Structure formats: C-alpha cells, structure tokens
Amino acid sequence: MKTTSTIACHECDLLYELPTLPEGSVAKCSRCGAVLHRHKRDSLDRTLSWTIAGLILFALANAYPFLALKSEGLAHETNLITGVQQLYKQDMRSVAVLVFLTSILFPFLQLAGTLYVLLPLKFNRLPWKVAPVFRFIRSLQPWAMMEVFMIGILVSVVKLAKMAKVVPGLALYSFIILIFVLAAVAASLDPHIVWERLEIK
User: Cα dihedral sign for 18, 19, 21, 27?
Assistant: First the structure.
C-alpha cells in the first residue's frame, strides 16, 4: 500500500508511515490506541459545497444592510464595513484594523483560497502555486474570528435597544449562518486528501 506521509502519534510520539486510507476509515496508534488520522467521507465534495455557500453568504453579508436603527421617525442603516470606518474615525485605528482583518479579510481569503485549491482538484487539475496557497489558508483559520465579532454585535444591540428600535437586516442573518458554514468547511476538510491529490510526500 502506498504511503503518503510520516505521522507522529500525538499521545505517545510513536512514528508511523501513514498509508492511503479508504474513505471512512480510521488509523489508530498500535501502542496507545489514539486516533492518528480519520479519512472523512466525500471530504472534497462536501468542503467545496460549503465553501461556495460560504462565499454566497459572505457576499450577502457585505452587500446588504446589517442593522437599521429607528428612532423618532428616522432610520439609519449600517453594514459591516461601516463599523470598521466608524472605529477608524474615532481614532481606534488598531481596533478597526483588527476587526477588518479577523471579520472580513481573513474569512474571505480563507473561503476564496479554499475554492482556488479545491475546485481545480475536483477536475483533476493543479492550480498555480497550490501548495503555498493551501498552507497559507490553513494558517489563516485560527485568525478568522467572526464569532467574536458577532458577540460584540449582540452586546451592542442589547444596549442600543434601550435607545432605539433595532431592525436586523439580511446581512446579519447571512453573517450568523456564515459562522456555522465556516465551521462546517473546517470540519469537512481532510488536508491529507489534498496532499494526496497534489502528490506531495
């Protein structure tokens, strides 16, 4: 059986030559019984589907109003980038940059990069610089913290509700669903399958 990589058990550090596993199978350490690798079923197709759905939701979250505040007959609509701009104007530039990176730029790069890698592989083609791109998007995953931004929004909505009527927009619902879709992308992706397709040892 063809071996694709060397892997160390995360429990006892015993080294193994990891073979190409059938879909749905699990490789376990013979010494301590810990799971070395789990071959996920239909990983490529499921991850690609979640990624496309994520990009659609990302577009909706940025194209439509996020919240509308109504008070004394006046309505003021906001979107994602508006919050970043207001933070920047209020001399909280470092916070504005951090919010922009973790809530807008990094999630987009993660989704777009995943599509760039997986879509050509689906048709047995290799995109340009695929290995560095895949490593880059994998490194972005811990920095895409949309759920933290969502918690901040919910806290703000509770406070603003005492002063004005808060009307959720389409972007807010898209943003909430997008958080779960990003989690599904991370959960369904099997990096070993990508490296096997790229024939990287």
Answer: negative
pLDDT tens, residue by residue, 71-99 = 766 667 778 888 788 878 888 888 888 88
pLDDT average, residue stretch 151-171:
74
Full-prediction pTM beyond 0.85?
no
The confidence score (pLDDT) of residue 19 equals 66
Q: How far is CA 125 from the centre of its chain?
A: 23
Lookup result for tokens 């972005």? 140
Please name which of 190, 192, 131 lies closest in space to residue 3, comparing C-alpha atoms: 192
**Residue 178 burial (CB count, 10 A):** 23
Q: How many residues does the chain have?
A: 201
- Residue 192's identity, in one-letter code, is H
Amino acid residing at 133: V
Residue keyed to tokens 């376990």: 28
CB atoms within 10 A of CB 30: 10
The values of phi and psi at residue 83, to 5°, are -60, -40
